[in-house]
C-alpha cells in the first residue's frame, strides 16, 4: 500500500528551463548589445549545459570561446548563489500537490545544497505541501545512490515499498528509486522518449491524480 509520494524538483515540480533561461539572460545581457546575438548565446548556453548535466566551467568555456567574450563571473559559483530565486512551479504543480496531500505523505529528494534547494521550493511557492525535504548535502550522498532514498523513507516513517518516487532524469531518479526498493514514475514533459524498460511514464504532473 502506497503511503508516501516523493518528488525530484527540477523539471518535475519546478520549471528548470524557465529558471535557467532567465538567469542566463540576466548574466549574459551586459556582454551583448545586439538582442539577436544575445538570444543566440542564451540558447547555446542552454544546449551546452544539457539540462544541468554538464559541468558549468565547461559551459562557460564553450560560450566564451564561441562568442569571443570573457565573463567576469564564475558560472558555477554564481549559479549556486542565484538559481534558487528564479524558479516557478509548473502550471499543474499546486493542483496536483493539493490533491495528493489529502491522501499521502509528500516529500522531496533533490541533489544540491540545502539553501539553494529550499530557495527553489520557496520561490515556486510549494514548500508548505511537503512533510519532508531531503537534499544531497544533508544526506551526504547524491542520487542515484540508494542511501538517499532509504534516508528519506526513514525520515518519513514509511517503508521503501510504501513509497513512489517521481522524477525526470532516468539515471538519477528512476534507477536510484527502483534500486532502493521504491516504485517510480518517470515524468518527461518534452514528448515521447524512447525507453524499453518497463516503467510508469507520464507527460504532465497532473496525470498523477488519475494514478493515485
Descriptive keywords:
elongated, alpha/beta, 212 residues, 10 helices, Rossmann fold, 6-stranded parallel β-sheet, 2 domains, 6 strands
Strand content: 5-15%
CATH superfamily of the largest domain: HAD superfamily/HAD-like
> Globular, elongated, flat, extended or rod-shaped: what is the shape?
elongated
CATH architecture designation of the largest domain: 3-Layer(aba) Sandwich
| Percentage of residues in helical conformation | 40-55%
Biggest β-sheet description = 6 strands, parallel
Q: What is the spatial order of strands in the main beta sheet?
A: 3-2-1-4-5-6
Find the CATH topology of the largest domain.
Rossmann fold
Count of individual domains: 2
Order of helices and strands: EHHHHHEHEHHEHEEH
How far apart, in Å, are the first and last alpha carbons?
A: 11 Å
The Cα radius of gyration reads 18 Å
Low-pLDDT parts are none
Average pLDDT, rounded to a whole number, is 95
Give an account of the 3D structure.
It is a single chain. With about 210 residues, this protein is α/β, with parallel strands linked by helices. It folds into two domains: about 5-15 and about 90-210, HAD superfamily/HAD-like (Rossmann fold, 3-Layer(aba) Sandwich); about 15-85. The protein has helices spanning about 15-30, 35-50, 55-65, 75-80, 95-100, 115-125, 135-140, 145-155, 170-180, 210; strands spanning about 5, 105-110, 130-135, 165, 185, 200. It has a six-stranded parallel β-sheet, with helices on both faces. β4 (about 165), α9 and β5 (about 185) form a beta-alpha-beta unit. The longest helix is centred in the first third of the chain and has 15 residues, at about 35-50. About 40% of the residues are buried. The model has no long low-confidence stretch (mean pLDDT about 95).
Amino acid at each position: 500500500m502506497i503511503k508516501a509520494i516523493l518528488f525530484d524538483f527540477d523539471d518535475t515540480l519546478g520549471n528548470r528551463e524557465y529558471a535557467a533561461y532567465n538567469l542566463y539572460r540576466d548574466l549574459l545581457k551586459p556582454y551583448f548589445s545586439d538582442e539577436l546575438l544575445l538570444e543566440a548565446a542564451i540558447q547555446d548556453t542552454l544546449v551546452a549545459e544539457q539540462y544541468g548535466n554538464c559541468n558549468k566551467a565547461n559551459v562557460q568555456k564553450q560560450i566564451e570561446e564561441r562568442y569571443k567574450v570573457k565573463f567576469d563571473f564564475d558560472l558555477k559559483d554564481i549559479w549556486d548563489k542565484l538559481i534558487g530565486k528564479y524558479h516557478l512551479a509548473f502550471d499543474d504543480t499546486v493542483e496536483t500537490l493539493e490533491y495528493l496531500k489529502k491522501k499521502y505523505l509528500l516529500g522531496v529528494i533533490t541533489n544540491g545544497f540545502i539553501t539553494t534547494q529550499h530557495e527553489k521550493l520557496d520561490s515556486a511557492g510549494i514548500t508548505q505541501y511537503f512533510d519532508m525535504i531531503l537534499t544531497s548535502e544533508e544526506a551526504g550522498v547524491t542520487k542515484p545512490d540508494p542511501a538517499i532514498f532509504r534516508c528519506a523513507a526513514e525520515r518519513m516513517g514509511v517503508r521503501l515499498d510504501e513509497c513512489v518516487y517521481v522524477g525526470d532524469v532516468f539515471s538519477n531518479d528512476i534507477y536510484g528509486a527502483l534500486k532502493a526498493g521504491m516504485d517510480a514514475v518517470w515524468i518527461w514533459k518534452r514528448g515521447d522518449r524512447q525507453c524499453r524498460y518497463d516503467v510508469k511514464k507520464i507527460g504532465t504532473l497532473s496525470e498523477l491524480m488519475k494514478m493515485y
